[in-house]
């Protein structure tokens, strides 16, 4: 900035010449004006530079930062304080003190002045305030000894941002069209379209959400359409309690009881609000597609995620960390074949900080997906108490008339050996026309990350259930749906998910492995199991570096039928981020080999084409295209297999957010999640966060998929700005609560750069060192000898203030036709 660079130049002269002297006690600077080549030495005002902390009295819109965290953006006042003789004293709003997360003894040292409208923290030992008005920031530094919390990777609840009121609509749309060829008929056309998404509204700390899913399919055998509202509910965060309150149509989210749907109220601790080392793991879904396929992830019949994938291995990592329990995965191939399998989401063994209690309570009426309430009332509660640093006690109860369950367990931190928990659940069930049944279920969880070995067992679990044990979902199916499938009660299950990188210190030798295995055995049904294994490595082949080789395999068993498959993929890097590849894909007894050509030279537009042959000698081919824009993500796949099928499929994800500051269409992958609205005034086309967002015609953009309760950085890509656009500040940080719409206002100007000469109404030039400021308090430039000044980023007919002697003295106005003037003389009135 001009003012900052001018100040640095003057201070540099102080060091190099006998131009000034400083008083260490006062941190002030006295300037020796005799060395300046200025005709009238009385026309000099360097008071603005004499004290590095001096700020002209007035109000400034600043980013308030406490230590490394940006709290908010608000008006901050600097006032004259005659009682202390201070010509300009910082007036901290008293409500900011609560957001500093001070210990009690530190907060008691805060004093109030100006009729208790201003706070002073100078009595806190080591507390400092750095005035960076020219950079639009107020930096407050508090010693860690005076803070409640000491985790450097965690922002305390007092500093979270609940966002602003607004409306949102997030959606994903997938479609497939094609033809299938078979015996006895020329062809059979089909098409299907599906969508799922979330509509929402935010008001204060409350969020209202309505999740929907829709599906339509037309082919030779069927013509059907479905639309459903999955759930309509409201929730809010309770930061001081590290809890979440929700009401409406909900799915039980418990670490000890299985999920089911109810209409009521839920109050629970939210582990995402805890420090990172006490949080669980986000779920991950892996699989192998035999062709271009649509992958749908569901839980209790509701769609959580849906996308189209290319043939070969796929990994889905976009699920929310709040998703718990068992997930159903549906893979629909281009030839119409559908395969399903289940995934257990990873769960950290139940551990709680010593002296703390985590809890989860729910009350309501059992309900179904048709928004009907067929069942009785229910009440549920579970808890975890940190007894010591390494031991936690947990348990809970579920009461619902003819279904009741009780759980008790213990968790232990094994330190170098990881963490483990053990619990037991007892159920009591009475079905119409049947006698009461009682059963027990035992469960063990284990997790460990071996940093020294570059490996992690993210989840290992074993469960054994007696024949008469029932969870709530089984009871509801038997009681209200007359579904005899409840007799397929689980006997035992075990799941292991692990990964390891061998030779991680040497990228040329590094080998990454992943293993997932699940086994489910039932008392009165067939066994289900699933094994996934993958290996990946970078190798050098002669002069060709970083050739990627990956292998994946899976085996699945259900209904006494085995399915297996795998893939070998070799990808060779070429010039310009292009790659040539080979893929061997095996699905049961069908083998397909293809060659591919990929182009990733444009990060926003990538594509791939494939061609090959299957084991029957039939030609296969296809292509994929992905477009990433600030407004949406589009993925398109096409495939062809001789005498079998041709198809075209795609997925579009997008969202829209509207607030009092404007509206914008934006990218989206996590429906209803937190987001940040960015305003750059009326400047359009400003790129944000490496092009993830770009301001629209109204100067508004939205950065979506922001992680809740994590410090998030929003930045302008200054290297990609137009030549006539300048950002006064380019980086803002902050931490949002769940579902919040954050707001970040960047001071961005579009204007010309010019030299001008200033004159007061008396025809006198403002003194050397006077400051030219915008109406927002931004320092634009410093007046030079004889009133000359260099202005940048100014607009036509914009009014600017000129200040010296500790106050604003006059104003200048940029003319509307200044481009046509050969010499610019601006009166300062």
TrEMBL record:
PapC-like C-terminal domain segment(s): 758-813
Organism: Winslowiella iniecta
Domain PapC N-terminal: 31-174
Keywords, comma-separated and alphabetical: Cell outer membrane, Fimbrium biogenesis, Membrane, Signal, Transmembrane, Transmembrane beta strand, Transport
Family, per entry: Belongs to the fimbrial export usher family.
Compartments, record wording: Cell outer membrane
GO-annotated molecular function: fimbrial usher porin activity
PANTHER family assigned: OUTER MEMBRANE USHER PROTEIN (PTHR30451), OUTER MEMBRANE USHER PROTEIN YFCU-RELATED (PTHR30451:SF10)
UniProt keyword Nucleus present: no
Protein name: Fimbrial assembly protein
InterPro entries: Fimb_usher, Fimbrial_membr_usher_CS, FimD_plug_dom, PapC-like_C, PapC-like_C_sf, PapC_N, PapC_N_sf
Listed GO CC annotations: cell outer membrane
Keyword Lipoprotein: no
Membrane topology: Multi-pass membrane protein
GO biological process terms held by the UniProt record: pilus assembly
